[in-house]
Amino acid sequence: MTNPIALAHSLDAFDPDGFDRPAIALRLEVEQNAAEQPVHRHRKGQLILALSGGVTCTVPNAMWMVPPQHAVWIPGGMPHSNRATDNARIYFLFIAPDAAAMPERCCTLAISPLVRELIKYLAEQPTAYPPQGATARVAAVLLEQLASAPVEQLHLPISAHAKLRQIADALIADPADRTTLAQWAQRLAMSERTLARLVVRETGLTFGRWRQQLHLLVALRQLAAGDAVQRVAGNLGYDSVTAFITMFRKALGRSPTQYFSALR
């Protein structure tokens, strides 16, 4: 059986490309994790699965949230960094190029109970398992099942444009910031119309929808960490818990309580 390892430290010395197997898995336990795994890349693609707690993954021009029972897929060669909530239970699955029909872009995948158990099993096996045998057959079934995992829209587009990055950094640091588009335009010495067009061009979303998506990802992270709905609503600057629940339900089809109950 593998030993739990801390996110920010043990992975620094682990090279997934040093193993020639089509898929290898690691199990991680994160206790009071305050550090972010630095930006890095590897030839193998990486699937990050959260069984409890959550993980935020940042890639060029986007941020991805991994709520419980979901996984984010990062294609091989893409720079990325990861941050986990306290006491998260995480599995990393590294997949060799062309070993499975995985998406060409980052995405959040809904993970079936079968795929979850296959990943857990593989994480308990040696990373250099025999190329023929029971473990290799499990890995083959896992890769076949992953190819049909449903994609979910749990990401935030983040533009590299200097002025939009300034807005993004401010809102990520303080999600409760309710500065309007007109106020941002004045602060950035732009017309409101020009800024509105820039946001849509760079992110594909209006400013209001973009900020709401940010709120959704922050809410998922905080709820996955165990924060109460009332506290999360306040952290995001909502006037009432009802308004926050309405936003959450419109985005994900369920209230926060129903959403996380279904995941469990």
Automatic annotation (TrEMBL):
SUPFAM superfamilies in the cross-refs: Homeodomain-like, RmlC-like cupins
Transmembrane segments: none
Keyword terms: DNA-binding, Transcription, Transcription regulation
The UniProt record lists the keyword Heme: no
Keyword DNA-binding: yes
Domain called HTH araC/xylS-type: residue spans: 165-262
Protein name listed in UniProt: Helix-turn-helix transcriptional regulator
Organism: Stenotrophomonas mori
